[in-house]
Amino acid sequence: MCDAALARLPLGDRTVESLCDGHFERERRTFFRNAEDHPSEVTTLQLAVRAFLVRAPAYTALIDSGLGTQAHRLAALDGSGETLPERLRQLGVASTDVDLVVYTHLHFDHFGSIGTPEQPTFPLAEHYMSRREFVHWRGRPGPHGEAVAELVDPFVEAGAVRFVDETVELREGLIVSIADGHTPGHLTVRCTGSSGSCVFIGDLLHHPTQITTPELSPNADEDPELAESRRWEHLSLLASTGWAAASPHLMPGPYWTVQNRHDRFTATSLVPQRGPEQR
Ligand SMILES: [Zn+2]
Ligand SMILES: [Zn+2]
Questions:
Q1: Tell me, what CATH number does 140's domain have?
Q2: Cβ burial 19-42 (10 Å sphere, 16+ → b, else e)
Q3: If you measure from the C-alpha of residue 96 to the centroid of ligand 1, how many angstroms do you get, rounded to a whole number?
């Protein structure tokens, strides 16, 4: 599982840090709905679960809040979800320092540390999420809907959620956009600092093989065709701009750049890891 050695991406006047809750494995043939159409020698996929911290001159933001209290819902997790506040403390960030939390989507591994309206984990933070996303999951059976009912509904009912409907700059250099497909209101977030940009891609990708083969579609994609077109779109954008991608799930590291190669893509993991990430 992960420890305190956190992975940092500098962007000049701001920095990004990954906050890892742990790792898990899945069988390739059952994780991707169309694995058989794209044969590979890889049989087992390694995935991480991460949130991200952005420290900018004018604000401190979290992108997602990890598994938190929902770790029991993720089968075969090597790690613990209850570590986010402790990891932030190790970085010198108090829970009251967090000004805003942006949730890429409402799968339970992305909002588990929100807390309760009475005892919010980040008491001074504004909480941003997609309205379409919330409407989709509210009252829906299954683990994601149940987690939304448990944690997100109370925040919405308390008037403590700010909904996003379109592309919007939430803070200077922090732009949220709709990138639906994986889920109906999935968001991506671009952070631009004085020396570079980083796109928090949420669950547009789960595994590096989807960079070379964007057609590979996880069963978790709600709209596989739309999710695939969003992958192509974002891979093109990343390749043409040189912006880094920050991913909750990609292994071995959280940060990647994408290169164009004969109308397909290759990728480079940016942060050299000391053994498996954050051990
Ligand atoms: Zn997801
Ligand atoms: Zn996820």
A1: 3.60.15.10
A2: bbbbbbebebeebbeebeeeeeee
A3: 27
CA 144–ligand 1 middle distance (angstroms): 9
CA 33 vs. chain centroid, Å, equals 21
Q: Cα of 266 to ligand 1 centre, how many Å?
A: 23
How far does the centroid of ligand 1 lie from the alpha carbon of residue 72, in Å?
16
Residue 212, in any domain of the structure: no
Ligand 1 centroid to residue 260 C-alpha, Å: 26
Domain coverage including residue 142? 8-196
pLDDT in tens, the chain (279 residues): 454 345 899 999 999 999 999 899 999 999 999 999 999 999 999 999 999 999 999 999 999 999 999 999 998 888 777 789 999 999 999 999 999 999 999 999 999 999 999 999 999 999 999 999 999 999 999 999 999 999 999 999 999 999 999 999 999 999 999 999 999 999 999 999 999 999 999 999 999 999 999 999 999 999 999 999 999 999 999 999 999 999 999 998 999 999 999 889 999 998 654 434 444
Q: What are phi and psi of 50, to 5 degrees?
A: -140, 155
Structurally, the chain folds into a number of domains equal to 1
pTM beyond 0.85, yes or no: yes
Cα(182) to centroid(ligand 2), Å: 10
Q: Where would I find the beta strands (DSSP E) of 194-263?
A: 196-200, 244-246, 255-261
Is residue 18 assigned to a domain? yes
- 107 alpha carbon, closest ligand: 1
Ligand nearest to the CA of 248: 2
Distance of CA 203 from the midpoint of ligand 1 (Å)? 5
Q: What is d(CA 19, CA 96) in angstroms, rounded to the nearest whole number?
A: 17
Q: Are strands 168-171 and 161-164 parallel, antiparallel or unpaired?
A: unpaired
Q: Is 177 within the bounds of a domain?
A: yes
Cα 81 to ligand 2 centroid, rounded to whole Å: 13
236 located within any domain: no
